[in-house]
Amino acid sequence: MHHTPLIATIVAGLVIAFVMGAIAHRLKVSPLVGYLAAGIIVGPFTPGFVADANLAAELAEIGVILLMFGVGLHFSLRDLLSVKNVAVPGAIVQIAVATLLGMGLAWALGWDPLAGFVFGLALSVASTVVLLRALQGHGIVETERGRIAVGWLIVEDLVMVLALVLLPALAAAMKTDGPMTWSTLLVPLMQTGFKVTGFLVVMLLVARRVIPLALHWVVHTGSRELFRLAVLAIALGVAFGAAVVFDVSFALGAFFAGMILGETPLSRQATEETLPLRDAFAVLFFVSVGMLFNPAVVIEQPLLLVATVAIIVIGKSLAAYAIVRLLKHDHRTAITAAASLAQIGEFSFILASLGTGLQILPPEGRDLILAGALISIFVNPFIFNALVPKRQEKGEPVEPPNEAARRRDHVVLVGYGRVGKLIARDLKARGKPFILIEDQPDMARAAKDAGLDVVRGNALDPAALHAAGIDDASKLLIAIPEGFEGGAVVEAARAIRPDLAIIARAHSDAEVAHLEAAGAGEVVMGEREIANRMLSLCAVPLVRA
């Protein structure tokens, strides 16, 4: 048989990652744990098949490029600015606290200050993948506390991008022969600064115009294959060009390529078209990271591992909680931020790999970071479930509308999301009286600012329905996107008003069936209505089922 180490490495990495990722998913933890475990299995520190470490490292570089490209694509300056007053100072102070804690542990181990800095920095940044999964599981991504947590992570990511640029210069300065002076430290940093500035000038003045034009031309060819190839060529080409021409990291080039592309109307299509390949190489990146991990650290240095995990799970989480509370936010927002940060992930692995590659972080530091990541990612869902409240539950206090808002023969509207806002706007324009029920504080506040009558509570709670005047209402409109949760609202309303006209929305046939069985008189399914509208425009009989 031909000797094919590249194929063997890719096949072994992906197959075992799939198996371990499926096990992790079954255990209700992040698949990242499974991917890292797959790397350990095919790594040199465990018996059996050993993948080619050099090839895995090169595949991991592609994974880093595509990961950073994805970070750039999803970077949202608008989202960051909406929570800048808490996310920017909070993230910076929390990074400083966690880095100092890591440096303290490194100092106790006798490492030099730069090694301690890299170690602490790696412990300070949480995984965006793990965070988003936790927020989505609790249904709080679009809430104020969810946006603060995401904005916090955006600031952390930006700080880590800067660190990836500056670390090689710091390493070069520290390795200079002779005594350390300000000039030996500043000269490499200034050289890096000039290179980065040159790269940014080219990206902002040239690439910002050329990339969108090129993509628009490709889109007009009508070829999805060519568009997909163009996006990958931009990601990899800009990253490689940044490294070769400006001597900056692949990561910085890929991040800016993604950020520029993310500003165009084609960003969503670019994300969807490249996602499968990005996911595949991201998996190989995590596998390659797992291959570097020596499991012996768990047995040989248990106390150091406990200290590392304590910094990740307790130290920086307490710092985040205190910071958010000092910035005058409530307990729920503070505990959400704290639990969100009680883990480390992608950037920690990139920093650990870079630190060991530059010979400024000892291998045991890398092992502690990887072990800390595995443990913190594994326990984070349990921490989140124990500490973070989900969407407001039945029985929480209901905030009724003003007495002046009491009405008869009005509409009760549940939900002020994208659909709910459109309904509310139209009802208001027509002069139709209605009262809104909304359980998310930020959405309820936005509705009040728009001059609407709002019941702050959960529509599953009879108290909220009574506060909205369900006894005297003419109709109930359920605009929340979750069809099965909408069915529970229908049942709660039917228990109070069996004769009430109820209209709900759904996304699937199963949700339609559930809502109708619960007692909804009319169910609007988005896809079906789009089809009906398109068919009506060409005079074709409408879709009825």
UniProtKB/TrEMBL annotation:
GO BP annotation list: potassium ion transport; proton transmembrane transport
Cellular localisation: Membrane
Keyword set includes Membrane: yes
UniProt entry keywords in alphabetical sequence: Membrane, Transmembrane, Transmembrane helix, Transport
One Pfam assignment: Na_H_Exchanger
TM helices/strands, residue ranges: 6-25, 32-50, 56-75, 87-108, 114-135, 147-173, 185-206, 226-244, 250-268, 280-297, 303-323, 335-356, 368-388
Keyword Transmembrane: yes
Protein name: Kef family K(+) transporter
Origin species: Sphingomonas tagetis
